[in-house]
Design goal:
The chain has helices at 2-14, 19-28, 68-101, 105-108, 110-153, 159-185, 190-218, 223-243, 250-256, 266-272, 276-305, 311-339, 341-361, 365-379, 382-393, 399-410, 413-428, 433-452. It is mainly α. It has one domain (68-244, 265-452): Up-down Bundle (Growth Hormone, Chain: A), CATH 1.20.1250.20. Helix 3 packs antiparallel against helix 8 (223-243), helix 5 crosses helix 16 (399-410) and helix 12 (311-339) packs antiparallel against helix 13 (341-361). The radius of gyration is 26 Å and the shape is globular. The N and C termini lie far apart (70 Å).
Length: 458
């Protein structure tokens, strides 16, 4: 009797064991930490470059870890250098286009406005393009748009075609701005790296007016500049596309969808318009980019017309502004990261307002040139700091779409405000540059104080 009881108890203990591995192992093998990740999401398409989901325990990568990130960061830096050359060119092209096509300031100012169309399209297309083609597709599309635009501009077509081709440059700028800002901003020491990224943009913006002036003086054919830009855009295309080659898009679509399984990624872009943080920072960045490119774009004309400078001296003053901006981004990234973005952006904007007043009231050419350079130093870290603040306030899964939308849409500021100055200059003279710049800085300061006091919630 006792033997039978023991046999029965052994049977009861052994029977539940076989189903245990069958029930747990196949379903959980792709999820290493079930208690922390409640939704069994598939792995993303490029774990080494994409931002992690909100359920991840640890996130940030470094610029050199994994090793392929070194190549990616360098290729992004070079792409932003070309992007900076693109943005620094219109201001130097204003007098050249006006003379070559025999047009007024108000018409030539369309070269500032037309890229806005491309930027707005990029802000809405960025999320879908990432989902379908990944960062590889974004790199190829953005730099490919540059190549096509520069090829057309190098043929010095009619001015109407020039305006259309600049829409392509705006589309490429919007895609690059959104994708590379969100990726670099998500790395360890993101504030410093963003300063470097935008520093390379400033270096490109510094170089292009000098090149254009030299070409116009020595060769007298402005379109040679765009022939050079075609070659640089091809190098940038090869660099960023190859560095993000594994980032192909299939898994990103799965990672981007909501936990409930909605497979349509496009509503995520529309939903951004209801996010207060994204909207507030978008407005702030539109104002910042508008002030930056407006000053850089019209400074050459201002120094020649109002301060009576020679073309060479005026182009050097314009380059001084971009040099100051570049120095500020490379040098102040460490300080901004240490002290904090909230305090330092307030200090930067107050300094910019004071220096801009000195620029306006100081009638001497040398004083204006020095003040312009110092304004560049003071505003250099404002946009990188705004992007870094977004990555701190928003959860990681919203970084790409929100930062991408805000920065891509912000590029439209580089079109609207320079165009407004051009229209006003037609009626009141280029002197309107200074009050417009002061108004933009003052509005940025008010908006930043609103943000820094935690008035905006997720």
């Amino acid at each position: 009797m006792s033997t039978t009881q023991v046999a029965t108890s052994e049977t009861i203990l052994l029977e539940p064991l076989p189903p245990a591995p069958t029930a747990s192992i196949p379903r959980r093998s792709s999820n290493p930490d079930p208690p922390i990740i409640p939704w069994p999401e598939p792995s993303i398409h490029d774990a080494e470059s994409a931002l992690p989901p909100s359920t991840a325990v640890s996130t940030a990568q470094r610029w050199n870890d994994p090793p392929r990130n070194k190549y990616r960061v360098l290729s992004c830096f070079f792409a932003f250098f070309v992007y900076g050359m693109n943005d620094g060119a219109p201001g130097a092209m204003v007098p050249l286009f006006g003379e070559y096509y025999r047009l007024r300031h108000s018409i030539v100012s369309l070269i500032f406005l037309s890229p806005m169309v491309g930027c707005v399209l990029a802000s809405f297309a960025s999320n879908r393009l990432h989902a379908v083609a990944g960062r590889r597709g974004v790199a190829l599309t953005a730099t490919g748009a540059y190549v096509l635009a520069y090829l057309g501009l190098s043929q010095h077509p009619p001015f109407g075609v020039v305006v259309f081709l600049l829409v392509l440059t705006g589309f490429g700028s919007g895609l690059m701005n959104g994708s590379w800002n969100s990726w670099v901003g998500g790395l360890v020491s993101g504030s410093t790296l963003l300063g470097f990224l935008h520093g390379f943009w400033g270096a490109g913006a510094t170089l292009s007016p000098i090149l254009i002036t030299r070409i116009a003086t020595k060769v007298e054919h402005w379109w040679i500049f765009y022939t050079m830009m075609t070659g640089l855009a091809c190098v940038a295309c090869a660099g960023v596309t190859s560095s993000f080659w594994d980032d192909a898009g299939a898994g990103f679509h799965r990672q981007s969808v909501a936990p409930r399984g909605n497979a349509n990624a496009q509503p995520g872009t529309i939903k951004v318009l209801k996010n207060k943080i994204t909207l507030t920072f978008s407005a702030f960045m539109v104002l910042y980019v508008g002030s930056e490119v407006t000053i850089g774009g019209w400074l050459l004309t201002f120094m020649m017309s109002v301060r009576n400078g020679s073309p060479t001296a005026s182009s050097l003053a314009t380059s001084g502004f971009w040099i100051g901006l570049t120095v500020g981004r490379f040098a102040l990234g460490w300080v901004t990261g240490y002290v904090g973005e909230k305090v330092m952006v307030t200090v930067y904007l107050l300094s910019a307002i004071g220096l801009e007043l000195g620029f306006w009231l100081g009638k001497e050419f040398a004083v204006s040139a020095v003040m312009a350079a110092l304004v560049g130093v003071s505003i250099g870290m404002i946009m990188p700091s705004g992007i870094r603040m977004m990555t701190k306030l928003l959860p990681p899964e919203k970084h790409l779409i929100s930062v991408g939308f805000a920065t891509a849409f912000a590029v439209s500021g580089s079109a609207v405000f320079p165009f407004v100055v051009g229209a006003l200059a037609e009626a009141y003279g280029v002197e309107v540059l200074q009050p417009v710049a002061l108004a933009l800085f003052g509005t940025q300061l008010a908006l930043w104080l609103f943000i820094s006091r935690n008035k905006v919630k997720v």
